[in-house]
Amino acid sequence: NQRLSQKVAIVTGGSRGIGAAIVERLAKEGASVAFTYASSEDAATMLVERVAAAGGKAMAIRSDAADAKAVQDAVKQTVDVFGRLDILVNNAGVLHWSPFETFSLEDFDKTVAVNVRSVFVASQAAAKHMGDGGRIINIGSCNADRVPSAGGGVYAMSKSALVGLAAGLARDLGPRGITVNNVQPGPTDTDMNPQNGDHAPGLHDIMAIRRHARPEEVAGMVAYLAGPEAGMVTGANLRIDGGFAA
Ligand code: NDP
Fold first, then answer.
1. Top-level class of domain 8-240
2. Among 105, 142, 144, 208, which residue has the least CB neighbours within 10 Å?
């Protein structure tokens, strides 16, 4: 008897990294999982096959998070195919970390469109279909609490926005039994932030647990929030950052 059987989830940005680990974990717990991606078609196809081989159900949808209509369509397609929607994980994100003096407006707009606006759009579209027990889980960042080097202001701003949005949406959706939470990972071993990258030693120096997280560790916290035990956790900001911000 799986914890998330009968549940349907959609994960944005699920083709690689933390999102892919979340897709696999929710599917392993019995949920039918749709996920979006922007360009990594091969990775998306392989993930669907990996989930199927493990006895789960996943569906890949090409949908650019910067395009509101595409995000709304992905939610609709999920409901059309799987018949309902219980869990939304807003994971898609981009990282532009570069000097403030030359930071381009284009990178600013892209950061806000993917990291913030898509979360609002997906949450609004998904909440329409959710009933009691619905779950909205955002992937923020430890950089909302701590920016350890220059150039991260815009990224940190985008992730701080998710803290306020989760608190506010928790109030909007609480009366319907839907929880909304923000998860703040620290350095996590993905293409975005490889644990053997140039910046890794400097990041480990300021952490209490001096290593990158594995994407599966973040997926574990998301799975907890997605499940029935977490019904009283809402409007919360949960760090999983090895003490990065402690
Ligand atoms: P990756 O860059 O490794 O993977 C990003 C995923 O998001 C890919 O599946 C990518 O798909 C998808 N994606 C990117 N842009 C878009 C878009 N416009 N539309 C749809 N999908 C998109 O990142 P991580 O797995 O490391 O990060 C996942 C989330 O976790 C992000 O929100 C990030 O900010 C956050 N985070 C990451 C940390 C880390 O150390 N890794 C730490 C704290 C937070 P595709 O390849 O098809 O474009």
1. alpha beta
2. 105
